[in-house]
Amino acid sequence: MSRPKYSRLVIPRRAREDWISGLISLYEPLGLAEEGRDLVACFRNPDGARQAQRALEARRVRSELTTDIPEEDPLEAFRAASRPFPVGRRFWVDPGDPSDSEPPAGRIALRVPASRAFGTGGHESTRLVLLALEEEPVEGLSVLDIGTGSGILALAAAALRARSVWACDVDAEAVFLARENLGRHPFGSRVGLTAAGVEAFAGRFDLVLANLLPQEFLPIRARVRSLVAPGGRLVLSGIPGEGEAEVLQRVRPRGWRLAGRRAEKAWVSLCLERG
After folding, report:
1. CA–CA gap between residue 108 and residue 94 (Å, rounded)
2. Residue 2 gets which letter from DSSP?
3. CA 69 to chain CA centroid, nearest Å
4. Distance (Å, whole) CA 3 – CA 70
5. Less Cβ crowding at N or C end of the chain, within 10 Å?
6. How confident is the model at residue 116 (pLDDT cuts 50, 70, 90)?
């Protein structure tokens, strides 16, 4: 008896781009996973995999497709990715199918299905911001999450009793998915969500979060800094370790100090405080 087969689609260096995972989800993958900086999707139906690849090609996104792979247990990685896991001391991230399962005592459940969007806490850069939120005072602050993706960071800030939370993303598909995720949480209604960039905001925020790759953040860095209140903080993540020095040099102007640094594997998060 022949073993079932599956197809594997790899999109190099695009693991954190929510619009790509949203696009692929239209073609019924078995699941999505991050492998380093790559996005990987597995399909039972090879035609679905080919259609997803053609959709990526139409948007000039490179991918690598392998079909007819004999199945050992291709879903094990996705089953593992869908199991709840702790982040820091406070959070319990559940990337599986939506459920009402209780988190361990003392932990806050963040339910963000991994099969729909990235930014589930499984990537190092997202975990680093969750740790920053846990360790930095958040209660009573005004918070802005730029490039919110799945909405997990905005949800975490709301759960920690921030006074107000706003989140934005230029990708309308990501905002649609984030809105679904907000609706799964009793505190999600406290997050204001908009499909826009930083230019849509005025005023100042006590805490600004930007989990973005350097090429996404650096062009808007001046505008982002202008949204941080005096004495406020800017948490940057998505910084590859080899690019940390350059990013810090270009992001930190006079009057700002480096208030914190966190690292996991090849990724770095920086916390800057405005004087």
Report:
1. 10
2. P
3. 30
4. 6
5. N
6. very low
Q: Which domains does the chain have, with CATH numbers?
A: 5-79 (3.30.70.980), 118-274 (3.40.50.150)
Strand ranges, E, within the chain? 5-11, 31-35, 38-43, 64-70, 85-87, 91-94, 108-111, 142-146, 164-168, 191-194, 205-211, 228-240, 256-264, 267-274
For 84, list phi and psi in degrees, rounded to 5: -60, 150
Residue-wise DSSP of 209-220: EEE--HHHHGGG
Place of tokens 């079932």: 4
The residue written with tokens 């598909």 in the block is 173
DSSP SS3 for 7 = strand
- The CA-based diameter of the chain, rounded to the nearest angstrom, is 70
Task: With CA atoms as reference, report the closest residue to 100 among 85, 87, 84, 88.
Answer: 84
Query: For 68-102, how does the pLDDT look when each residue is reduced to its tens digit (9 = 90+)?
Result: 887 665 555 555 556 788 999 999 998 877 777 88
The residue behind tokens 């999707």 is 41
d(CA 85, CA 93): 5
Query: What residue has token string 């907000």?
Result: 182
